[in-house]
Queue: 2 jobs
Job 1
Amino acid sequence: MPAAGERSAARREATGRRLARFAALRGRAARPGEFWDVVAVTAADAEQALAYRQQLAEKLSRRELPLGVRYHVFVDPPGPKIGNGGSTLHVLQCLEDLYGDKWTSFIVLLIHSGGYSQRLPNASALGKIFTALPFGDPIYQMLELKLAMYIDFPSHMKPGILITCSDDIELYSTGVTETITFDKPGFTALAHPSDLTVGTTHGVFVLDPSSFSGRGGLEYTSCHHFLHKPDIETMRQCGAVCVRGNRSQLSSSGDHSDSEMDSECVYTDSIFYIDHNIAKQLLTFYKQMGTLCCEIDAYGDFLQALGPGATQDYTKNTNNITTEESQLVEVRQKLYSLLKGTALNVIVLNNSKFYHIGTTQEYLFHFTSDSKLKFELDLLSVAFSIFSDKAETLDQSTSIIQSILEPGCFIGPGSVIEYSRIGPEVSVGRSSIISGSYINFKVDIPSNCFLSSLSVKINNQVKYCAAVLPVQPWTPQRC
């Protein structure tokens, strides 16, 4: 197995190639089969949908996205929250309403971005899919990064839908002759080697040992059954714990130094694909259900029903949900009956990393302190910003995104400044987030502080509001 540094370097090279391919496609019409037929983004309500559509329109007018693509924002129906699983079903309905039977011939990228980003408040106004990233000129946002990282998929995909979330990043490298292909019936998911502690907050695949070795860059295998946020004991009991590079052996070691070189791992989920036959079955189910009154998880409630080892025990397990709606168990049981026996194909990416940036702690860590992500994605300390050489010397762990730093200001290590102007007498402590703010008076902003400002319109008058919150220190999990 290559050393961890070689694996990271391979991911950096593959990421750079994908970014270059996407850059060449921005502002020009994609050829048939070269890109997605439809890119769909979900929104929680009409106001959020309007904001998303405005941002998409601006990106298209600036030729920052590939052209000739159907970009849509689909808003969840009014009423109770329906989760990303319910949103998936609703998007299928919207596609049929817009395109009739033609939608079943489309290659669709579906990005779930319908939350209010309460754990990362600086993304609340613009949406998580429009979170600014510290690279690019002009800066990339999560949308562009998603489109770039999946740039190889459409040309190797049968008509169907690839489902992803808006606050994660998947970086991976495969062999020169290896290709990720989505052409099998049913569900197909990507799998990433992860530390066992990561598996407790993600989906974990119990893979078929007869068709999986754990070697090479890419393997096609099948999943016996899918565990949703299991504890470590359950992972071991179900046979999900693997020895990296040798699937047939189990490890009892609990000592971890570099997670990429640890022998013990599990394979966790990220994005998954459904073919149009499954999509039509799910749409029929949605029509039969009528109005949904509960939150459905596209991962926990779809994937747990798949594979030969699936049982309906999970349908009554409400440990991983925040509220238990009366309809939830009934919906889960009906989904299980619908999907039982459906294959869960898995594409194992042995040299891959999954990064989640959905909380303030993760956001700060990955943008300032995570040397691997900064190296592999070539993140900058100062991106698309004006930085005076008379300002205090910046620590390399800071992240300045589309901002102006005036001479004399000080930015502490591990802090992120985005969409802001920082005056000459401003001092920002360590591990803080400053977003959308113009600060032009003498002030010391403490460490571990979140400060975000927004302009709002009330009674046709522009007003301003600011939110100040503490940022709790975070110990990262190793993927």
Note: The radius of gyration is 23 Å.
Job 2
Amino acid sequence: MGSQAADGAGSERPADGTPEELGEESRRLTREQLFTMAATASINFSSMICYSILGPFFPSEAEKKGASNTVVGLIFGCFALVNFLTSLILGKYLTHIGAKFMFVAGMFVSGCVTILFGMLDRVPSGPMFIGFCFLVRAMDAVGFAAAMTASFSILAKAFPNNIATVLGSLEIFTGLGLVLGPPLGGFLYQSFGYEIPFITLGCVVLLLVPVNMCVLPKYDSIPSKESFWKLILLPKVLLLCLTIFSLSACLGFLDPTMSLFILQKFTLPAGYVGLVFLGLALSYSLSSPLLGLLSDKLPYLRKWLLISGGLMTALCFFMLGPAPVLHIKSQLWIFVLVLVLIGFSIGMSAIPVFPEMLNCAYENGFEEGLSLLGLVSGLFNAIWSLGSFAGPTLGGFLNEKLGFEWASAIQGGWALLTGLATGIFYITEARRRSSSSILQSSPSNNEERTHLMGSET
């Protein structure tokens, strides 16, 4: 990713600088970079906390309003589906709309819609309530897609040489939002009722809008004619999309199934279920900065992180139940340990994906700039959302028909397929490059022999 360094803030290199001076310069963050990180951290934290507060109490409130379990699942699922569609569109037109405007507008829409969600208890029960739930949830997905697509692009523009490190570090705020959302939402709901959690968090998000308008730098770019089809049809990008989909589907599978399994299998009080979820969220959040640093400092490790992460995720989902063929009794300590390992293994695969997609695009002649970053970030968010829709949908069906043990093992098949496919691809690519380098060196060797023979005569 060094070829696009001139585009990023703070990435200019003096021609006569020593390696020590360059290393010292690269470690200093400019004011624009600090503001960009602060703005992105705010959207990561606020969007995830608003997303996760629904879990503890919304399903029961929706049932009181006449929504069945299937409809509640569809209300959750429509967020991912709309996010998938809008991420592709917004990524394509990022440079036309403007990255900063898209970011701030996405936050504004998300804050307003969160407040509107708190007003839904005043809507009459039945079809009208269900219809408004779908509408508000879809609007929330549009705001989320706008903010996240813009934030990925802005980060890649501001940190062209260490994007994985920055993304990994900011995942701490994503994890904090996911961890704090359910207990905070549950506390506010029990203390003040249905409306207060949404109104409080929505107002906090709206307060962040003028702050980010002031601190977030403006990044301009010339629109390009590149398309999603040209990008996604690259074999390596297609494989990386499969990786994104499998990871998102595996995480999404846990949302509708894991809490029920914990309550039934281990007979834990409902209040302790959220603590079990902490194992996955904390391990992912804490390991992501280290994995991002490794990905940037040692780029050749990315392929090994992708392969080992996929295989490790598959093994963990096979052990989560555990799968009946293993004849291992399910125990709480094993379950929590496997969740911790899942958080780490998903980080191994997820963190290197974005810089690998960018590198692949540059290698295949895509024009550097914010327009390409919009395409890549839009594609990343879209495929992640597609997995978030497929995971709970398929996982809920398998859980109902086969039970959690078999369902989790089958879900791990996505990660196994991805890990094996990634390994085969990189082995094939290494052999192809090795053979091409041999062919390129052969003519030069022949020329040297001819020259030597001519000099001898």
Note: The chain has 17 helices and no strands.
